[in-house]
Here is the input.
Amino acid sequence: MPDERTRQRARLAQSETAAVYDRIAPVYDVWGLLTESKARDLALRWADIRPGEHVLEVAVGTGLAFERLVRSNPDGRTVGIDLSPGMLEKARSRLQRAGLDRFDLSVGTAEAIDEPDEAFDLLLNAYLFDLLDEPAWSGILGEFMRVLKPGGRLVMVNMTLGERSGSGLYERVYRLWPALMGGCRGVRLSGALEESGFSVERRTYLQQMLFPSEVILARKGGG
Here is the structure.
């Protein structure tokens, strides 16, 4: 497959992102169930959490994946950050209802993760890079590289460029009304990951309700 990374520039300014996701937080779970759940399920299988690991999720959203990370890591450290206080409030409520309390959640940005170098065995990130203009990718991937231990695993999910019939619907919606898509448009990350020093071990394409996602498993060298 050619290294075509995106066909459209990001049209939702970073300064608008938190406010948009605060507004859609009450209904995001429905969207996630209908269009993202298969990709999220696969990402969690590929994450393959081991007992006592240090795990970070960047862009937690409403906690659809984070709850499962915490359940899978009862003896480890599980940390989540998100730019949107509204999303984090939903995530925290979800974990409290589930009776889970061994986790850290806070407002934070992928551009400057407030954690020490080489702190995590696993980093999960879903539906963030499809919000960002390509020039911002390398700095964030550098942060991911910094906080992962040598040999650490990076599992990513993104809205991606459509590869099957019907998936172009969402690109057309994005062109007309980017905020309706939460600012997301199709991207491919494998090339950028390799340029940032990650080794891409797996990449697969999934389509749910015509919505196209990629799931990637990559690793930091030195393990």
User: Anything to note?
Assistant: The helical segments are 14-24, 28-47, 66-72, 85-97, 137-147, 168-176, 190-195. The radius of gyration is 16 Å. Residues 69 and 83 are 19 Å apart (CA to CA). Residues 28-47 form the longest helix (20 residues).
